[in-house]
Amino acid sequence: MIRRLAVVVALLVSDFAVAAEVTHVATAGTDEWPVEIDFFGSFVGTQENATIARENIHPSPAGNPGQSGGGLYLATEMSYQSTSMVMPLRAAVGIWHHLELHLNVPIVIDYRQTWGYSSVSNENGQIGGISVDKKPILCPEGPPNAQGLCANGQPPMPLVTPAPNGGNTLPITSDRGGFVVGNIGVGVAWAPISEEDDDTDPTWVLGFDYAAPSAAPMDPTVVSYGPGSPSQVGAIGDKFHHFQPWTALSKRHGILDPYIELYADIPHAAGGVYDNCDNPYPHSGGEPRGASPSQPGGNCGLVANGYDWSQAVTQAQPVYVGGFWFGSEFVAYENKEQDQKVALDLRFITEYHSQALTYTELTDLVQALTYQQDFARLGAQAGIYLRPTKYFELRLNFMLAHDTDHWLTMENLGGGGANCSGASCDVGIGSQAQNPNFDFRYDNPGDRFMLQNSLIGAFTGTLFVSF
Question: Which of 245, 329, 330, 366 could be disulfide-bonded to 344 (CB atoms 3.0-4.6 Å)?
Fold first, then answer.
């Protein structure tokens, strides 16, 4: 959740998965389980709170340009909150000894983001001062012309339409989901070594999951608060294939059952991936991204003279995720004859998210994909598992996590191609080297946004039934 935000559903389900018994695999071909069938019904509720800061240029004192005090600094611009409710459904069937096939169907009940005033002063000492609704000095495609106009013939427009009659622009809320099915996944898990066969061995599981791009893609210009779409609930898909290898290892020692799991998410673009070039800049009057006075059509789709601004380059890019969790179950009560158990679980999570042009915490506000910096997610989770019989189990988990501070807008101005390389690259505004995804209003150094002070909380409840 999650932030998760790019790949909303896929990451929500993987980040907050409730693999309480991380090495459990449905089996078949045994006296106890001729064919084991497992059903998991879960509810995952998450909330992220953070602040969004923006670079500001603090001038040196008047008449003393060399005096200290000038330069760039980060000012808290807005508060940010996202909440989500997802219902992952999972079915697994044993097809051989410690070998299972499974199906994952996430149902997104609601995904909501809110941008509000921060309690920290950032504009002339006034609480609630923001810049997103103020007129910038730059057009999306660069400086205005001599008449002060952008390529669309209008003066530079703010990132967010100011509130009418001088009222408060914020808070703004974007709502997505609404009981829709996310990316449906299938997978396989196999335990080549299992404690059930020999209690002197650990249990080792190899797994692979695939989530298909089945959900409709998110369009940042179609938001619930937007003109012409009041109360409209947006889509939640990303149109990426998600390949997710993982492996887990556990070994029971008395009341302790320590484990470790390593996993990755490797997305690959499918057809229909969102591209900023598909829609105009928000509030810019309808010009395509990258439009400039000298080149009204912009560079979207340009493949010439060694430059490549085709859709494969300008569309949303994959966010690669890799991580591991480690921890232990603590068995508080166990009756092996009745197959009853009460266990506590404590784990720690470390996860890496790569940089990419993707859906970020600013996307629905500025109505465009933005290029985020890579970051790490660090967290801990505690749970309790109640199993009155071998056919039924209730699992409750609570998690707290933190995303390290990272830029939300850091697109490259341009370059690449036969005519532009290394230190000799001179990206002239309006030239073929200019990146059509670069927005001078918030990608330019001195105007960039950063996510800070992230705190993610999650609750997961799972009902496990086995036949």
Answer: 330
Distance CA 17, CA 278 (A): 34
With b for 16 or more beta-carbon neighbours within 10 A and e for fewer, the 298-333 pattern comes to bbbbbeeeebebeeebbbbbbbebebbbbbbbebee
Query: Are 25 and 100 a contacting pair, CB within 8 Å?
Result: yes
**Residue type present at position 408:** L
Q: Rounded CA gap, 9 and 4, in Å? A: 9
Cα–Cα distance between 448 and 406 in angstroms, integer?
A: 11
Domains of the chain: 8-132+169-274+319-410+448-466 (2.40.160.40)
Supply the DSSP symbol for 12: H
DSSP 92-121: EEEEETTEEEEEEEEEEEEEEEEEEE-SS-
Reported as type and span, the H/E element at residue 175 is strand 172-181
Its sign, for the CA torsion 44, 45, 49, 50, is positive
Predicted confidence at residue 434, as pLDDT, reads 86
The 8 Å CB, 24+ separation contacts for 386-394 are: 386/342, 387/339, 387/340, 387/341, 387/342, 388/340, 389/338, 389/339, 389/340, 390/339, 390/466, 391/465, 391/466, 391/467, 392/464, 392/465, 392/466, 393/463, 393/464, 393/466, 394/461, 394/462, 394/463, 394/464
DSSP 404: P
**pLDDT for the residue numbered 17:** 36
Q: What's the pTM?
A: 0.90
**Which residues in the chain land under pLDDT 50?**
1-3, 5-20, 121-128, 292-296, 424
Helices (H), 324-427: 363-366
Q: Please give the Cα distance from 386 to 341 (Å, whole number).
A: 6
DSSP 14-66: HHT---SSTT----BSSSS-SB-EEEEEEEEEEEEEEEEEEEEEEPPPTT-TT
